[in-house]
Specification:
The protein is α+β, with helices and mostly antiparallel strands and 526 residues long. It folds into three domains: 218 residues, Rossmann fold (3-Layer(aba) Sandwich), CATH 3.40.50.300; 98 residues, 3-Layer(aba) Sandwich (Rossmann fold); 137 residues, 2-Layer Sandwich (Alpha-Beta Plaits). It is 29% helix and 29% strand. 47% of the residues are buried. Bound molecules: guanosine-5'-diphosphate (GDP). Guanosine-5'-diphosphate binds next to helix 2.
């Protein structure tokens, strides 16, 4: 297959949903339909098997949240699908936002009984920033759900996106009988399958087929009536509108029962965009350019506790990556050889021979790579749009055993490189201050310090309310500021200068006093 064909057949996406809507279940089923798993192995179960020695995963499991993002690649009907998993819990939303910068489209999963929920709204806002195309799966039709017409109205109203139903449910809960495919004019009868078996429910061609009345009884008539209404009132699927982010095709089903997923996947690989062009500070990069470019959207430490590795996840934007390639690490201006990149075929890490635009590769990070870093084959360009957020919560790390200071500093430095938490070292004292967006992040860091670095640390309150990255175009003023405001300044784990303010009023006063200094609450990496 040529480079262009390989590129065009890539589909790189993430699932967005409110916790509990069924993202994990959906992920498993997508893998099942992609042939990546044969049996009923669950994603969560498989993850913990690989990390059997790590208490940290135990914690993740017992909380029932998936904190660790991972990447899964599998072939489906001639296409190559890259599914980027994202943590569902709001405390890890930064990680999710950054992952969304690395996809070309998204799949939104909605609980039929609950409709549009708060996290879905937030994630949708993030997708909208880049007009990411979104397909929708309304899940849990096997339970009593809300009226589907009402649900679509809610999606349109709350999320401000047109809905184009592709399949339509026949009843819900105990009366759930299957879905009607509007374009194919065929009914797929509900036949719940557990675990690793694909649905084999009967297909009935044509809405007028008498077989439908035979099987559905009076529900057949109800379906015909409802569809007349739906087809009159809803939007027809328009691929252009979908690609521009203005319309979402909608599918109904039950992920846990392996139902309605094949319809979704078939249209997904057909219509979802392949690798899209990506903006940089200087120009747009087309995926079909022959020279390699990519950016790092995530760093994760100790994915495999036996190897104590840190992996940088890089999205390939153009060209191919070949094993052993030499790449320019643009931010530090150095060419580095990448001997052993990882790929994520069928959810197991394997060594990459060649990877294409849209693919994610994992490269070992020995501390020089940061989130947002661009790699090229020599050209000096930097991809834009990978955000970093100023934290809202601050704690001081406190050691139980003071002799372990070195391990603590090392552990915090490495965990903070993952980007979920920020580490600050004040210029005028030896504190280690951690900043996070969600409170659960502190617990996770404490737990990981214990299991991965053998350090017992606690996080206690500290007199910091907010932090801003600071910079200035006026070097003289900047020096003066650094001297006068030294007690409020700290260095973050990336080496950048940060103003840490005990109160918002203090920050405001500093901003007024130093108009030449920029105080920034978000920072773009790179
Ligand atoms: P996540 O938090 O979004 O990853 O959601 P999960 O995939 O963990 O699912 C949340 C709960 O809903 C679990 O107990 C699932 O077994 C259940 N669930 C998922 N899909 C379905 C479905 O189609 N029908 C029903 N009845 N339950 C489902």
């Amino acid at each position: 297959m040529s480079f262009i064909e390989e590129t065009r057949r890539r589909r790189t996406f993430a699932i967005i949903s409110h916790p509990d809507a069924g993202k994990t279940t959906m992920t498993e089923k997508l893998l099942l339909y992609g042939g990546a798993i044969q049996l009923a192995g669950t994603v969560k179960g498989r993850k913990s098997a690989r990390h059997a020695t790590s208490d940290w995963m135990e914690m993740e499991k017992s909380r029932g949240i998936s904190v660790t993002s991972s990447v899964m690649q599998y072939p489906y009907k001639g296409r190559m699908v890259n599914l980027l998993d994202t943590p569902g819990h709001a405390d890890f939303s930064e990680d999710t936002y950054r992952t969304l910068t690395a996809v070309d489209s998204a799949l939104m999963v909605i609980d039929a009984a609950k409709g549009v929920e708060e996290r879905t709204i937030k994630l949708m806002e993030v997708c909208r920033l880049r007009d990411t195309p979104i397909m929708t799966f309304v899940n849990k039709m096997d339970r009593e759900g809300r009226d589907p017409i009402e649900l679509l109205d809610e999606v349109e109203e709350v999320l401000k996106i047109q809905c184009a139903p592709i399949t339509w449910p026949i009843g819900s809960g105990k009366r759930f009988r299957g879905v009607y495919h509007l374009r194919r004019d065929a009914v797929h009868l509900y036949d719940p399958e557990e675990g690793g078996k694909k649905s084999t429910g009967e297909i009935i061609e044509g809405l007028d087929n008498p077989r439908l009345d035979e099987v559905l009884g009076p529900q057949a008539g109800e379906l015909r009536e409802e569809l007349e209404l739906v087809q009159g009132a809803s939007h027809a699927f328009d691929p252009e509108a979908y690609l521009s982010g203005a319309q979402t095709p909608v599918f109904f089903g039950s992920a846990i029962n392996n139902f309605g997923i094949e319809e979704l996947l078939d249209d997904f690989v057909e219509y979802a965009p392949g690798p899209l062009p990506r903006p940089t500070h200087s120009r747009k990069v087309e995926p079909t350019e022959e020279k390699f470019t990519g950016f790092v959207f995530k760093i994760q430490a100790n994915m495999d506790p036996n190897h104590r590795d840190r992996i940088a996840f890089m999205r390939i934007c153009s060209g191919t990556f070949d094993k052993g390639a030499k790449l320019r690490h643009v931010r530090i201006g150095r060419d580095v050889k990448i001997p052993d990149a990882l790929t994520f075929l069928a959810s197991d890490r394997e060594h990459v021979e060649t990877a294409y635009p849209g693919d994610i590769i994992g490269i070992h990070n020995h501390g020089t790579i940061r989130i947002g870093d661009t790699f090229t084959q020599g050209e000096d360009l930097t991809f834009t749009g990978v955000p970093n957020f100023a934290p809202e919560l601050f704690r001081r790390a406190q050691l139980k055993d003071p002799l372990k200071m070195k391990q603590l500093a090392k552990g915090l430095q490495e965990l903070c490189e993952e980007g979920a938490t920020q580490l600050y070292r004040p210029l005028t004292n030896n504190d280690l201050i951690l900043g996070a967006v969600g409170v659960l992040q502190f617990e996770v860091v404490a737990e990981r310090l214990r299991t991965e670095y053998k350090v017992e640390a606690q996080f206690e309150n500290v007199n910091v309310q907010t932090a801003r990255w600071v910079e200035s175009d006026d070097p003289k003023k900047f020096d003066e500021f650094k001297e006068k405001a030294a007690t409020n300044l700290a260095i973050d784990h990336g080496g950048d200068l940060v103003y840490i303010a005990p109160t918002r009023v203090n920050l405001q006063m500093a901003q007024e006093k130093w108009p030449e200094i920029r105080f920034q609450s978000t920072r773009e990496h790179g």
